[in-house]
Amino acid sequence: MNERIEVFRYEAKQTQRLDKYLVACLPEFSRSRLQALVKDGLVSVNGTQTYKTGQSLEPGSVIRITIPPPEPCGLVPEPIPLNVIFENANLLIVNKPAGMVVHPAYGHSGGTLVHAALAHAPEITGVGGEKRPGVVHRLDKNTSGIILLAKNDTAHHWLQDQFRLHRVSKIYLALVDGKPPTSNGRVEASIGRSSSQRKLMAIVTPQKGRQAISEYHTLEAFPSHTLLEVHPITGRTHQIRLHLQFIGCPVAGDTLYGHQHPSIPISRHFLHAFRLTIRLPGEDTPRTFEAPLPDELENVLKQLRRAD
Fold first, then answer.
1. CATH number reported for the structural domain that contains residue 91 in this entry
2. Residue 72 and residue 189: Cα distance in Å, rounded?
3. Rounded distance, CA 74 to CA 254, Å?
4. Which residue from 111, 180, 217, 261 has the highest number of Cβ atoms inside 10 Å of its Cβ?
5. In this predicted model, what pLDDT tens digit does every residue of 111-164 receive, in sequence order?
6. Cα separation of 187 and 200, whole Å?
7. Which residues fall within 8 angstroms of residue 140, CB to CB, at 6 or more apart?
8. Beta 287-290 vs 191-193: how paired, if at all?
9. pLDDT at res. 202
């Protein structure tokens, strides 16, 4: 694939920042991506190379930008079967199994969702970055359920904006130990890096973390457990698991933030991304997608109902 060259003429009467103008001209790219191209010397204004993302454009300015082809990501596609819920030219929606990591990371160089997606849809190569192609949002390794991947830069930018602006509704199913203080509720507790274990997250003061909000609703109560529907308003790392621990009912099977010895015979935590509602690129009406509970979680509920 060859490099792409675009030339634009700034016709407005007022001055404007270069990076803001480029975002309007090239909406398929994020502002940070375009700023990086400026800093790399790939943009010129009136024939002069510039490295200033905030340079003011005067009426009549001619901007030339060179967009290099995606660099090889170095990831080797792996023909791992995927449970595809929906697919079109812009995105791929998958029901991810527990145990699968979303993208390569330390200790997980292969067998990830990204490796499988590259084999299924090679066009995602380089979309949104070379190391995490197509990734818009994430699920923990042992959380199953709905996750989506973008298949081109325009869709990636659109979908990221939907998440950033809180225009996506996500519903999780969680079986917790004990029961929450109220049948329905809202948790507002900031999340940041743990000061004692740097690989973990923790509930922290607002000054030390980022705002995090979750709402929950009781679906079914058992003697020692409760099945909840959880709606995360924000999307912080490990948010649901931390918030449920914070109100005294950790996710069953969560040995990281809950009880060290699971209260039920389960090899993972009972957390599943069940429903996602989002407006897809080029569409006016939001769509809702669902992923049924996997058999191992459904069987846990059946056992609890029999024992009740």
1. 3.30.2350.10
2. 41
3. 34
4. 180
5. 999 999 999 999 998 888 777 899 999 999 999 999 999 999 889 989 999 998
6. 20
7. 238, 241, 271
8. unpaired
9. 93
pLDDT at 71: 57
For residue 173, is pLDDT > 90? Answer: yes
Residue 296, φ and ψ in degrees, nearest 5: -65, -30
Position 1 scores a pLDDT of 56
The structure's pTM equals 0.78
Domain coverage including residue 249: 166-308
Tokens at residue 157, please?
């930018």
Q: Are residues 45 and 62 in the same domain?
A: yes
Q: CA–CA separation, 238 vs 138, rounded Å?
A: 10
CA distance linking residue 145 with residue 94, whole number of Å = 8
- State whether 171 and 159 are in the same domain: no
Q: Is 126 left (phi over 0), alpha (psi -120 to 50) or beta?
A: left
For 205, residues 6+ apart whose C-beta sits below 8 A from its C-beta are 190
- Tokens coding 24: 């309007």
DSSP string computed for 236-266: -TTHHHHHHHHTT-PBTT-TTTS-SS-SSS-
Which of helix, strand or coil describes residue 22? helix
CB half-sphere exposure, 25, CA atoms < 13 A: 19
303 and 175 within one domain: yes
Number of domains in the chain: 3
User: Which token pair is 133?
Assistant: 């192609």
- Residue at token pair 């969702």: 113
Percent of all residues in the chain with a pLDDT value above 70, rounded to a whole number: 98
Whether 297 shows a pLDDT value over 90: the answer reads yes
- Are both 200 and 253 inside the same structural domain? yes
pLDDT score, position 194: 86
Token pair for residue 287? 């769509």
**Catalytic residue positions, numbered:** 140
Q: Which helix (H) or strand (E) holds 219?
A: strand 213-221
Domain stop point among 148, 164, 180: 164
CA distance 147 to 96: 7
